[in-house]
Design brief:
The protein is mainly alpha-helical and 213 residues long. The protein has helices at 2-28, 33-67, 73-115, 122-169, 173-212. The chain has one domain (2-26, 33-212): Four Helix Bundle (Hemerythrin (Met), subunit A), CATH 1.20.120.
Length: 213
């Protein structure tokens, strides 16, 4: 257990060092952490929009399976499984983009806080400190919305996976009947996910706007 914990800490240290080296290199060519943060927030929003489409597509495919009596179940399974895999890939991409936003934001706020000590003019320092706190507050609100949307993907993916497996193991009309009972709840969950992602995207756009002011 101790060795595993040490390995974890070592990996975190390496990743942090790699991130720092990347940010330092980008700053040398005129791309600052604030610019990277804006870019990554935009990419996270784009990933959420893609995930919305993938989940909608998976739901539509699910509906085609449960609402058509003479569906070729083997083909239906193949299509539904492909939709599930696409949805899982889109969800993974969303999580990756959010993690990237978090990484650069932490680096930006750390640097900003450290540089407050470089001020000679205390009025300017106080003004910058207030801006830092305001930006951190808006960032925290945006990140909460992102993580909320991210969490809501997991139960939907679990439901999709369970039903894909059930269809795979029971390729007959009775399986379709059993899946119909799952469809209504899945549809509601997807609609809630899309609403959460829309709120997250709106929060992201508002945060970007404040950074560009």
């Amino acid at each position: 257990m101790q060795a595993r914990h040490l390995l974890y800490l070592t990996l975190i240290g390496l990743l942090t060092a790699c991130s720092s080296a990347y940010y330092n290199t980008m700053e040398k060519v005129g791309v600052h952490k604030r610019d990277i943060l804006v870019s990554r927030v935009e990419k996270a929003s784009a990933a959420q929009e893609t995930a919305q489409q993938e989940f909608k597509s998976a739901l539509e495919q699910f509906a085609s399976v449960v609402h058509i009596e003479d569906t070729d179940l083997k083909k239906a399974y193949t299509r539904l499984n492909k939709e599930y895999e696409d949805a899982q890939e889109a969800a993974d991409r969303v999580s990756e983009r959010i993690d990237e936003v978090e990484d650069v934001a932490h680096a930006l706020f750390k640097e900003w806080k450290q540089e407050l000590d470089l001020y000679q003019n205390q009025n300017l320092r106080a003004s910058s400190a207030r801006s830092l706190k305001a930006t951190q507050r808006r960032y925290a609100q945006m990140m909460a919305a992102m993580r909320d949307a991210e969490k809501s993907m997991h139960p939907i993916l679990s439901t999709l996976r369970d039903n894909v497996l059930y269809l795979k193991h029971n390729l007959n009309a009775q399986a379709v009947g059993a899946l119909r009972g799952e469809f209504t709840q899945l549809k509601a969950n997807v609609q809630q996910l899309i609403a959460r992602m829309n709120r997250s995207i709106e929060s992201s756009n508002a945060f970007i706007a404040t950074l560009k002011e």
